[in-house]
Amino acid sequence: KKQKLENMNDLILQNLDVGTLNCAANPLVGHRRPTELLVDAASAAAIRGTLTAAESGTTFLVPGLTSGTQTLALPAPTADVVGCYYTFLSIATVAQDLNITTDVTATKVVGNVSKGDGDNVAIASGFNSIGFDANAVIGTFFTVMCVSTTAAVAWIVLDAHEGIAANTATLNLA
Hints:
Elements: H1 8-14, E1 35-37, E2 59-62, E3 70-73, E4 85-90, E5 98-101, E6 109-111, E7 125-127, E8 129-132, E9 141-146, E10 155-161, E11 171-173
Parallel strand pairs: 1-2, 2-4, 3-5, 6-10
Antiparallel strand pairs: 4-9, 5-8, 6-7, 8-11, 9-10
């Protein structure tokens, strides 16, 4: 005996066969987060080209740097970039500053850094870069995520962790 459908939701629910998901028999395997080892520019210069939306989710491994403050540019905060995120992880004492910069002065990275006692240096506010100070040690990391096309709040700092004792002075916002 067929029932009369009152609306489209009834039709969808009546014809939906979800089956079962057996994770033990069909585990998600082989999934890896993309990584890229950055190569020391050996001078005060860009360490590589501007990041792209296609690289979202990548963890960039930061080696010891040999000379000058090096930079890496975030993409402009367009609709295609909102939701993109990038993680930066030091795999050695960085030895030189590395700044992850916004595309233009009006575009901001919103965040704050710890002063080591469980408190923050100041409330979160907008900056033009986040990065590693020269004394950042292995294991220091942070993630930036594009959350808006509005320049003043386009990027936000997530998961900032300083690898040095007392969690101070290895990350910078400028």
